[in-house]
């Protein structure tokens, strides 16, 4: 399936065809580059929490995630202890998954360790594909790539968790490591 024309006459990726939170996310954020450690840590964390769930579920809980993870300040999250884990597990406003909560804390600590090297942002960007995909249809869209597999492997080597190749591909799409929009979508080429 190629781009769909919404009731507003605009061509979009099919998952964002109707009005609502998914369309808003598609039109204003998905595929646009982000900057700074906390922005990268946030997207990495949210993609991990999304694993096995719908993205709309995560978007609906995003403000609560931002609150409970201290605006995705890696230093604060890295210091979380068992009391914080229990607090997070009892907070109905977020996805309460013990392994994903543990991964967020682990990844905050690994993010801090990267400060002594290139940093999370530079590391992720170093896996930008030489020839970005340009799918015309959803059937042509990938869920992994050689770059997402390599990024996953490198992040795991550096102590990160819940960073499989599919999750890293979704991260790369979300933060504009490459333009994820279908050719013909009004956002294709507009992400900067």
From TrEMBL:
As recorded in UniProt, its EC number(s) are: 3.2.2.20
Q: GO:BP terms for this protein?
A: base-excision repair
Determine the domain of life of the protein's source: Bacteria
Coiled-coil stretches are: none
Residue positions annotated to bind Zn(2+) are 13, 26, 181, 185
Q: Which Pfam families match?
A: Adenine_glyco
Q: Which GO terms describe its molecular function?
A: DNA-3-methyladenine glycosylase activity; metal ion binding
Annotated keywords: Glycosidase, Hydrolase, Metal-binding, Zinc
**Name by which UniProt lists this protein:** DNA-3-methyladenine glycosylase I
Q: Which species does this protein come from? A: Nocardioides panaciterrulae
């Amino acid at each position: 399936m190629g781009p769909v024309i919404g009731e507003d006459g605009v061509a979009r990726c099919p998952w964002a065809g109707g009005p609502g939170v998914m369309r808003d996310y598609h039109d204003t954020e998905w595929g646009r580059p982000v900057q700074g450690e906390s922005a990268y840590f946030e997207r990495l964390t949210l993609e991990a929490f999304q694993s096995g769930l719908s993205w709309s579920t995560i978007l609906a809980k995003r403000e609560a995630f931002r609150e409970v993870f201290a605006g995705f300040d890696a230093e604060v999250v890295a210091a979380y202890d068992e009391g914080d884990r229990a607090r997070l597990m009892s907070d109905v406003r977020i996805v309460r998954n013990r392994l994903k909560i543990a991964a967020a804390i682990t990844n905050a600590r690994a993010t801090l360790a990267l400060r002594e090297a290139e940093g999370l942002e530079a590391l992720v960007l170093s896996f930008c594909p030489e020839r970005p995909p340009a799918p015309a249809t959803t059937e042509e869209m990938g869920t992994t790539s050689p770059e997402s597999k390599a990024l996953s492997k490198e992040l795991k080597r550096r102590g990160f968790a819940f960073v499989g190749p599919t999750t890293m591909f979704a991260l790369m799409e979300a933060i504009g490591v490459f333009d994820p929009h279908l050719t013909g979508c009004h956002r294709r080429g507009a992400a900067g």
